[in-house]
Write a structure and sequence with these properties.
The protein is α/β, with parallel strands linked by helices. The protein has one domain: NAD(P)-binding Rossmann-like Domain (Rossmann fold, 3-Layer(aba) Sandwich), CATH 3.40.50. The protein is built from 12 helices and 12 strands. The protein is globular, with a radius of gyration of 20 Å. The structure holds nicotinamide-adenine-dinucleotide and 2'deoxy-thymidine-5'-diphospho-alpha-D-glucose. The site of nicotinamide-adenine-dinucleotide (NAD) has 30 residues, from α1, α4, β5 and β7.
């Protein structure tokens, strides 16, 4: 039985990747290592609790001794590394936490893999999940390709860029069998409601203001999270060692246009008069260093590995809104406690 370590599996994207691998590969044993920060939630994986090929391990990737011991104990064949501090606004408030988890945590995992596999890399793989934000920002036109130069602007993207460089350096220096992917913005179920789409669904539901940064003119390229998980499956199994794959949906939206679509769909679903939720739109101070536009060219992944997105955005956003509306208890649970303090600091004191 192959043993695969997935880090950050209790988070948004990680929970979809864990679910896909546990269900699709009964002959793999999936170890989900997660610190359970505010963003990690075992309720995201309730359906897997009794699966024979699934084990949850609570732990911190920054804890080097613990990581070395975990690798020695379980003798993993592969690593799919998603654990990270992932929210740009939090990185602006507290950059060091991002350096610790995203950079030091990644290097700890690389060291542990290298030590365990001891230069006999046959059948082994270290897969690092990264973001399109490392490429910086685009103007009105053009796309990020795998060869676009790195130009990060936020502490979050700088920490992810740094971790990407370490992963590639371990390939070039020690021959570690690594693969990297850089994906655009994900949306779908189980996303922590500090990120645009679930935050605004929750606020519309509760008739709270919708805080649009700047003029709402920034553009993001949205991909349904289950399509990202499918891409990770394909790249883990078929990607070339040392290679990079961009993942994206060719689905660009100006924030304000996306928000208006969400308001219209929510009005319909909540039985409100047309235009009611749009009244909640409130323009607030822009995010510092706010990148104007992201857009991914995923031609390489589509051409070489045959992946393509399965869902059109119109269908995806309806499914996503339906999920949050019918999982109000999940939303209420994650928006209590610590989250409230964060929310007050982020928005109320502006
Ligand atoms: P998330 O914040 O929802 O989840 C991160 C998970 O990592 C949480 O479960 C958290 O508990 C865990 N974690 C954090 N610090 C840890 C530590 N020190 N040790 C162990 N576990 C720790 O993030 P996400 O949106 O699911 O993103 C997952 C990965 O995908 C990240 O690496 C992110 O950079 C990348 N990514 C995200 C997006 C997106 O749109 N969300 C797009 C492209 C790439
Ligand atoms: O591009 C991939 C990245 O997408 C991932 O690497 C990150 O982990 C993920 O958080 C996401 O980053 P963004 O900064 O693009 O996502 P966020 O949901 O925070 O913001 C999306 C856009 O909406 C961005 O232009 C900022 C804007 N925004 C966001 C929030 C939370 C607002 O206008 N108001 C808000 O309250």
């Amino acid at each position: 039985m192959k043993k695969i370590l997935i880090t950050g599996g209790a988070g948004f994207i990680g929970s979809h990747v864990v679910r896909l691998f546990v269900n699709k590969y009964p002959d793999y044993h999936i170890y989900n290592l997660d610190k359970l920060t505010y963003a990690g939630n075992l309720a995201n994986l309730k359906d897997l609790e009794n699966k024979h090929n699934y084990t949850f391990v609570k732990g911190d990737i920054v804890d080097d001794g613990f990581i070395q011991q975990l690798f020695a104990q379980h003798q993993f064949d592969g690593v799919i590394h998603l654990a990270a501090e992932s929210h740009v606004d939090r990185s602006i408030a507290n950059p060091l936490e991002f350096v610790m988890t995203n950079v030091v945590g990644t290097v700890n995992l690389l060291n542990a893999a290298r030590h365990l596999w001891k230069d006999d890399y046959q059948g082994k793989r270290f897969y690092h999940i990264s973001t399109d934000e490392v490429y910086g920002t685009l103007g009105e036109s053009g796309f990020f390709t795998e060869t676009t130069a790195y130009d990060p602007h936020s502490p979050y993207s700088a920490s992810k860029a740094s971790s990407d460089h370490f992963v590639r350096a371990y390939h070039d220096t020690y021959g570690l069998p690594v693969v990297v992917s850089n994906c655009s913005n994900n949306y779908g179920s189980y996303q922590f409601p500090e990120k645009l789409i679930p935050l605004f669904i929750n606020n519309i539901r509760h008739n709270k203001p919708l805080p649009v940064y700047g003029k709402g003119e920034n553009v993001r390229d949205w991909l349904w999270v289950e399509d990202h998980a499918r891409a990770i499956d394909v790249i883990y199994h078929q990607g070339l060692n040392g290679d990079t794959y961009n993942i994206g949906g060719h689905n660009e939206w100006k924030n304000i246009d996306l928000i208006r679509v969400m308001c219209r769909v929510m009005d319909r679903k909540l039985g409100r008069p047309d235009g009611e939720s749009e009244k909640l739109i409130t323009y607030v101070k822009d995010r510092a260093g706010h990148d104007l536009r992201y857009a991914i060219d995923s031609t390489k992944l589509q051409r070489e590995l045959g992946w393509k997105p399965s869902l059109q955005f119109e269908e995806g956003i309806e499914k996503t809104i339906d999920w949050y509306l019918s999982n109000q208890e999940w939303l209420d649970n994650v928006t209590s406690g610590d989250y409230l303090k964060y929310y007050e600091q982020q928005y109320v004191t502006r």
